[in-house]
């Protein structure tokens, strides 16, 4: 477990020797002095993301959850950098168009925020919720919007 200072506050990254399995907002007290290899790679990739240099993550990750939640997480990973989808769009994408609230629940339970971009899922009438708080969600969406435009202008 290691902590990454970031523009949206500290992120506690937890992993095994093979993969990342959790990112929490805030700092945890039991951090280790030497990150495991996947944690180091995650720190590098998130740092590049926050600098606007990375739009996709390749660090090995292992999300846990029900079969339904894992479907939602996979659908969220298909949302392109700088774009959004509604909870309803995700429900349709997984073949369960009436499961809008359950999609919201899966987003709220996402163990790997940013890597699995639940911040890109919004309500049909507004921003929607975010387990890291609305301020962080809005920051991430604006960050991606700015860097997407810069990439398109190159």
Number of helices: 5
Q: Looking across the biggest beta sheet, what order are the strands in?
A: 1-2-3
Strand % is 5-15%
Overall shape: it is globular
Q: In percent, how helical is the residue content? A: 25-40%
Strand count, sense and barrel status of the largest sheet are: 3 strands, antiparallel
User: Rg to the nearest angstrom?
Assistant: 15 Å
The tally of strands reads: 5
Order of helices and strands: EEEHHEHHEH
Helix/strand class: alpha+beta
Instruction: Compute the average pLDDT.
Output: 94
Uncertain regions spanning at least 5 consecutive residues = none
How far apart the termini lie comes to 37 Å
Structure description:
The strands form 2 sheets. The protein has a 3-stranded antiparallel beta sheet. The protein has a two-stranded parallel ribbon with strand order 4-5. The protein starts with a strand and ends with a helix. It has 5 helices and 5 strands; from the N terminus they run βββααβααβα. Helix 3 (87-93) packs across helix 4 (100-108). It has 154 residues and is α+β, with helices and mostly antiparallel strands.
């Amino acid at each position: 477990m290691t902590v990454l200072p970031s523009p949206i506050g500290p992120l506690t990254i937890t992993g095994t020797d093979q993969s990342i399995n959790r990112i929490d907002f805030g700092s945890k007290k039991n951090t280790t002095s030497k990150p495991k290899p996947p944690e180091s790679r995650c720190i590098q990739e998130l740092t590049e993301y926050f600098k606007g240099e990375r739009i996709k993550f390749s660090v090995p990750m292992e999300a846990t959850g029900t079969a339904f939640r894992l479907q939602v997480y996979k659908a969220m990973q298909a949302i392109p950098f700088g774009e959004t989808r509604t909870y309803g769009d995700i429900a349709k994408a997984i073949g369960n168009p009436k499961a809008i609230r359950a999609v919201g629940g899966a987003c709220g339970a996402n163990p790997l925020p940013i890597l699995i971009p639940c911040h890109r899922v919004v309500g049909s009438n507004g921003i929607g919720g975010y387990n890291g708080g609305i301020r962080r969600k809005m920051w991430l969406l604006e960050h991606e919007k700015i860097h997407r435009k810069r990439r398109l202008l190159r």
